[in-house]
Design a protein that fits this description.
- With about 425 residues, the chain is an alpha/beta fold.
- It folds into 3 domains: about 130 residues, HUPs (Rossmann fold, 3-Layer(aba) Sandwich); about 120 residues, Serine Threonine Protein Phosphatase 5, Tetratricopeptide repeat; about 120 residues, DNA Cyclobutane Dipyrimidine Photolyase, subunit A, domain 3.
- Helices cover about 45% and strands about 5% of the residues.
- The chain has 18 helices and 5 strands.
- A 5-stranded parallel beta sheet has the order 3-2-1-4-5, with helices on both faces.
- α2 links the parallel β2 and β3.
- α14 packs across α16.
- The longest helix is centred in the last third of the chain and has 23 residues.
- The structure holds flavin-adenine dinucleotide.
- Flavin-adenine dinucleotide (FAD) binds next to α9, α11, α14 and α16.
Length: about 425
């Protein structure tokens, strides 16, 4: 038994958080910490802020909710500004913590953060917990996912692998560790003094995170799950999921899943409750199917690691990507001259959210029509998306660019056809004709 630091990462919730439960069980004193990376505010190699204003705003709301919940349990969230390998060892020393517990994130930067902590002399216990399915339940070794999604899905379904039930939030938190006079108050004020993101509300948004119902945080996520499954919307999901406007055409789980305010198992438990009462149908099956895509991209990253970040991705025979800096800037600003693409890019920039259909269309346009580097597009999505998720973003971009696991070797979406199929009357283009 000892003093521990719980390092919150992309798991900003108390319920169904096995790593947090482990820390609560093992600690005599526990300090919960979140680190804001200095690089979030710095320009990427492509010339824009790594975390844009809407995403920052959503994160701020999420952290506020987490802090409130910890406070209600007699604990506290400490928000630090700095690299984990600088902040956490210093903090551990001042409170005499014996180690850090956190979730495992199998992406290169996140793995390097853990390696740097260990190199700084800290004991770090990582727990894999962001997938819907347990790695040990899979009908193949967790690090050896079938390359093709359909093969993966069929293997899971044939073996009847089902998600475990979500776990309850810890009821008891170990007391805060004794800390040097004023330390925790100073850290709290450093984080409070960070400039707050200036993200303006936009009533056209399909994910209006400025409203109470769509704000960041575990409390709102739980209310959304409750609301979503209290109507027959999910039964329509398969038919509506390629929609472009409004809050109801898809589940809108992703921003809460990406911040970890919602666990995939909790979302799935809501789906199962709905099926138990209303019966299973095409819509409910399709939501499960899409949640499997989320797991698939996690497993593909576990398997391929840093290769996912190469310019050629997983395809040694792919040509080196070309870039078109001017075209890329027009794409980001929504001024390419292709109306459907421009409307989508304006929505993304103004609100931090974009439908799956338009993510595919705009990504394809950047790669195959503007001949710009897919990595620049992925970085722009990282900066803008409220639901930025390292696995889903990298996996989907590689897939469309034909440098990932698409058996068809990449996908071009013809903008004229997409416009005819998905915006035949021009409502969406009219909605986003300007920013
Ligand atoms: P729904 O249609 O209701 O789907 C339910 C859930 O299934 C989603 O919340 C998500 O967790 C999962 N899901 C659905 N489609 C996919 C998919 N293609 N890949 C992985 N998971 C999926 N999703 C992210 O969460 N974060 C990202 O950073 C991200 N980047 C993307 C980049 C590109 C180029 C593309 C084409 C897709 C990307 N997606 C990403 C996947 C998908 O567009 C979003 O998950 C979805 O639009 C979120 O809205 P929703 O929750 O209403 O989805």
């Amino acid at each position: 038994m000892s003093t521990l630091i719980y390092w919150f990462r992309a798991d900003l919730r108390l319920a169904d958080n096995p790593a947090l439960l482990q820390a609560c069980a093992d600690a005599t004193h526990l300090l919960s910490v979140y680190c804001h990376l200095p690089s979030d505010k710095q320009p990427t190699r492509w010339g824009f802020e790594r975390v844009g204003a809407p995403r920052q705003r959503f994160l701020t709301d999420t952290l506020r909710d987490l802090a409130k919940q910890l406070q209600a349990r007699g604990s506290q969230l400490i928000e630090c500004v700095g690299h984990p390998h600088e902040v956490l060892p210093a903090l551990a020393q001042s409170i005499q913590a014996s180690g850090v517990v956190c979730e495992d994130i199998a992406a290169p930067e996140e793995e390097a953060q853990v390696a740097a902590l260990r190199a700084a002399g800290l004991t770090v216990d990582t727990v894999w917990q962001s997938s819907l399915l347990e790695l040990s339940d899979l009908p193949f070794d967790g690090g050896d996912c079938p390359e093709v999604f359909t093969t993966f899905r069929q293997a899971v379904e044939r073996a009847r692998v089902l998600p475990a039930s979500p776990l309850r939030a810890p009821t008891v938190f170990a007391p805060l560790p004794p800390a040097p006079e004023g330390l925790l108050a100073r850290l709290a004020s450093d984080a409070r003094d960070r400039p707050q993101p200036d993200a303006l509300p936009d009533a056209r948004s399909s994910f209006p995170h400025h409203t109470q119902a769509f704000a960041g945080g575990e409390t709102t996520a739980a209310a959304h799950i409750q609301r979503y499954f209290s109507t027959p919307r999910v039964s329509q999901y398969k038919a509506t999921r390629n929609g472009l406007t409004g809050t109801d055409y898809s589940s809108k789980f992703s921003p809460w899943l990406a911040t970890g305010a919602l666990s995939a198992r909790t979302a799935h438990a809501g789906l199962k409750r709905f099926e138990h009462i209303q019966g299973a149908d095409d819509g409910t099956y399709w939501l499960w199917f899409e949640l499997l895509w989320r797991d698939y991209f996690r497993l593909i990253q576990l398997k391929h690691g840093t290769d996912m970040y190469r310019a050629r991705g997983l395809r040694d025979d792919a040509p080196a990507p070309t870039h078109n800096p001017k075209g890329f800037l027009r794409w980001c600003a929504g001024t390419t001259g292709e109306p459907l693409v421009d409307a989508g890019m304006r929505e993304l920039r103004a609100t931090g959210y974009l439908s799956n259909r338009l993510r595919q269309v705009v990504a394809s346009y950047l790669i195959y029509d503007l001949h710009a580097d897919w990595r620049a597009g992925a970085a722009w999505f990282e900066s803008q998306l409220l639901d930025y998720d390292v696995y889903s973003n990298q996996g989907n971009w590689l897939y469309i660019a034909g440098r990932g696991t698409d058996p068809r070797g990449g996908r071009r979406f013809n903008p004229e056809k997409q416009t005819r199929d998905h915006d035949p009357h021009g409502h969406y283009r009219a909605l986003w004709a300007s920013t």
